[in-house]
Amino acid sequence: MGWKFNLSLQAAVCLTQNRSVGNTLPTLDYIPGSTLRGLLAKNYLDQPGRSVDTQFQNLFLSEDICYPNLYPQGARVIPLSALTCKYHPGFGTDNKAHGAVDGVLPWLRDLLTNKAQLEPSADYCGVESCRAPLDRLSGYYIINDNREEQQVAVRKRLMARTAILESREVVKPGALYTLEVLEEEQEFAGEVSAPDNIIQQLQEFIASHLHGWIGTARSRGLGKVKLSMDEENDDRCYPMAERLSGFNRKLHGDGRMSCFSLTLESDAIVLDELLGYRSRPLISDLQMAASTPEAEILNNFELLAAWTRVQRVTGWQAAWKLPKPEEQAIRRGSVFVYGLRNGGQTLIDNQANSLVAFLTQLEEKGLGERPTEGFGRLRVCDEFHWENERK
């Protein structure tokens, strides 16, 4: 049982993606956790007589609460390992699509068995009359009641605007620009991680402050949103031990326990010893993220494979009225697989229990910097990689 934020767009919203140069401002297709926290903090301070008091610090400055990214309809990010037909992309739930597959297990089988070629399912389209090459599938998906993956679309549109010449209050010549916006009447959601007492304070606060504004161009009528909190009980998710055993069972075809995967549900900022940015987390980074006694079990593991990208992370600090420092993050949807250093080995029962305990803590704490803003969220042995071979 958990709690989630629901955010409804009452007007179009533009969340600028980066400090791009040009006359078009692209928008993000989700609501970052930092934007959600900023919205609530502003509503709190706008109340008469409110200041940065103890309750403010508990709600917005404490490390006990992690504000999530809000994705369309509470969907999940499609992993970067997802592959689909180049000419008819999409999951099988879309009648026009040729379906999708995940490349993690086929690639690992070839790696561990030293085969010369990939399995056909990860090489070309599985429809006999097509046989087209595969391409990456991106976006968001939900799991329906039949445990099938279904893609979720994010509606956007372009809005043309022009700057005003203040001295004459007329259109400024040559100052036409375009805003990309998220269309109104869309729902975004994400699960919040916090103690029960903070959850109760948030519920009471949000109940009296349902509306707010986010994004840019708010003076032009953009950015109005409505916020609420609901209980979430998703019985379609497997416990950690079942996910770990299911992943290895599909990988090896027997009961051997030798690998696990991490799939990023949000961007992750991971620093090395010299405060440089990593493009993939090492075993030492995982142990630092969840420093529990069970972390020693990872000394037997190494990074085997990665499907990853990096991207710039920017933002706006409303309190300072300045842009936040630019950072580099491992992109959400990235997948990393770790395995025993000796591929023929397997974990015994007490080692497997230690691994489950550690990975449970890692999933709760997250990976890397700025976890309170939604960075570093991950899922261990995501069902996407092993439950349905064809999607």
Question: Overview of this structure, please?
Answer:
The chain has 3 domains: 152 residues, Alpha-Beta Plaits; 57 residues, no CATH class; 146 residues, Alpha-Beta Plaits (2-Layer Sandwich). A hairpin with a 4-residue loop joins strand 10 and strand 11. By secondary structure, it is an alpha+beta fold. 35% of the residues are buried. The protein is built from 7 helices and 22 strands. The model has no long low-confidence stretch (mean pLDDT 88). The strands form 7 sheets. Strands 3-12-1-14-13 form a 5-stranded antiparallel beta sheet.
Reading the helices and strands in chain order gives EEHHEEEEHEEEEEEHEEHEHEEEEEEHE
Domain module tally: 3
State the helical fraction.
10-25%
User: What is the strand content?
Assistant: 25-35%
**Radius of gyration, whole Å:** 23 Å
Shape: globular
Largest sheet: 5 strands, antiparallel
Protein traits:
391 residues; alpha+beta; Alpha-Beta Plaits; five-stranded antiparallel β-sheet; 7 helices; globular
Question: How do the helices and strands line up, and which of them pair or pack?
Answer:
Blueprint: E1 2-9, E2 24-25, H1 33-45, H2 54-61, E3 71-72, E4 76-77, E5 82-85, E6 100-102, H3 104-113, E7 134-136, E8 140-143, E9 149-152, E10 156-165, E11 170-182, E12 187-192, H4 196-207, E13 211-213, E14 224-232, H5 240-252, E15 259-264, H6 283-289, E16 301-307, E17 310-313, E18 316-317, E19 322-323, E20 327-330, E21 335-340, H7 349-365, E22 378-380
Parallel strand pairs: 2-11
Antiparallel strand pairs: 1-12, 1-14, 3-12, 4-8, 5-6, 5-7, 8-9, 10-11, 13-14, 15-21, 15-22, 16-21, 17-20, 18-19
